[in-house]
Amino acid sequence: MSQQLVYTESYFDGSSYHNEGPYKVTVSDGVIEAVTPCTSGDLPDDHAKFIMPGLVEAHCHLFLDGGELDLKKRSEYLKAPFEEMIEVAHKSVAANMAAGITLIRDAGDKYGVNHQVRREAEESREVTPSIRSPGLGVRKPKRYGGFMAREVESREEIKTAVEELLETGDELKILLTGIIDFESGSVKGTPQFDVEETKFIVDMAHALGRRTFAHCSGLLGLEVAAEAGVDSVEHGFFMTRDILEILAEKQIAWVPTFSPVYGQWTHPEVVGWCDETIGHLRNILDSHLEHVAMAAEMGVPLVVGSDAGSLGVVHGKAVIDEILFFLEAGLKLEAALNAATSLPRRLWNFDSIDIAPKNRAEFITLAASPFENPENLRHVSAIFKDDTFVKIG
Questions:
Q1: CA atoms within 13 A on the CB side of 194
Q2: What is the bridge-based pairing of β-strands 253-255 and 232-235?
Q3: 312 torsion bin: left (phi>0), alpha (psi -120 to 50), beta (else)
Q4: What is the mean pLDDT of each run of 10 residues along the chain (393 residues)?
Q5: How many Å is the Cα radius of gyration of the chain?
Q6: Is 292 helix (H, G, I), strand (E, B) or coil?
Q7: What is the CATH number of domain 3-53+353-391?
């Protein structure tokens, strides 16, 4: 039996903050045996200031480099060799781990990069984040999502695609709408799938034991997603109270992904936005903050995901940015951290890694407590995963 003793001044267990320490966490064979108070005299010199469960990135594209701001290069990259995309994905995974992220849900690519890095993570003997991969999603012909989804039109095509994709996919991604037209400040066009089609997809996925997550913004698409009962709404810009009531009733998760819009608002010169468009971007963000606050009050399961890999959205760093957006919306830090640790794991039927006896030990240590300053989330000292400590930085 291997046993490790971890001493910390305070900790977040996945839902609650504990600040009456110090504490001793006893880990035996990778499982938490006990969390007990201790005295300051018990603390070794290298004790942790703060520990918490490993973070979750619930929405990203590992094969994309969010730090690349040249639009022409980003477009040309989609024709790059598979080996180059794998190299980018490896850097993305490493950046996530350096930020304290131990579980990543990729949000789709048509090249097979996400499945490849998932396979590598499963086979790796080194500590690395676990990867949840959908592979490809589904979309209608000639509609948004060409780099991450398979085209389907008829009911039979949908059935065949869902069955084939879920042979290897951990979840099914549905491209339900297009993207935001920032110049008009709206989502143009009709949803890619109607309620009947979307419900057919959701029911098929559920019958095969898989969850669904839907790329969706704009009222028309949100109405379809809510009525059809997708498991998670991704992005969800132009949310309304009426839609939130349905999400709360059906316990449909919402991953708000502030970062892509915020990045374009803070750096409009990258795309060349005019003042009017910059105003639309700010209005979209303000509405998003308002509705995330509503969602929290109404009991909608809010989950942290950044859409890293998108223009200006850097892997790893962006998850902390998203937590801070939740705080800006008015959520308490405990709720924001729960949305980035325990809640997504529960929704995805992962074993709990809450810092409590009998749970698997998978936690991060920080140089200082985020309850003193939330920016301290950016200062990860070490990761404990697979019964191994890995120092960061």
A1: 4
A2: parallel
A3: left
A4: 93 98 96 96 93 99 98 97 98 99 98 98 97 98 93 97 98 97 93 98 98 98 99 98 99 99 96 97 98 99 99 98 99 99 98 98 98 99 97 89
A5: 21
A6: helix
A7: 2.30.40.10
Residues in CB range of 154: below 8 A, 6 or more apart: none
Q: Copy the structure tokens of residue 330.
A: 């008015």
**54 secondary structure, DSSP code:** P
For 215, the enclosing helix (H) or strand (E) is strand 211-216
CA 286 vs. chain centroid, Å, equals 21
Domain with CATH 3.20.20.140 in the chain: 55-348
Output the pLDDT for position 181. Answer: 94
Give CA–CA dist 308/61, Å, rounded.
6
Give pLDDT, residue 393. Answer: 76
Neighbours of 112 (CB within 10 A): 17
Contact criterion met (CB below 8 Å) for 354 and 342: yes
**Which among 322, 309, 236 is positioned nearest to 60, based on CA atoms?**
309
The SS3 assignment for 48 reads strand
Contact 238, 199 (CB under 8 A): no
Provide the greatest CA pair distance for the chain. 69
Number of other residues whose CB lies within 10 A of the CB of residue 208: 14
Residue 59, SS3? strand
Q: How far is CA 32 from the centre of its chain?
A: 26
- How much is the pLDDT for 188? 87
Distance (Å, rounded) from C-alpha 238 to C-alpha 231? Answer: 19
Give me the sheet containing 232-235, strands edge to edge: 149-151, 137-139, 171-175, 211-216, 232-235, 253-255
Residue 266 CB burial class (10 angstroms; 0-12, 13-18, ≥19): exposed
Q: What is the pTM of this model?
A: 0.97
Q: For residue 1, what pLDDT is reported?
A: 73
CATH 2.30.40.10 residue ranges of the chain are 3-53+353-391
CATH class for the domain made up of 55-348: alpha beta
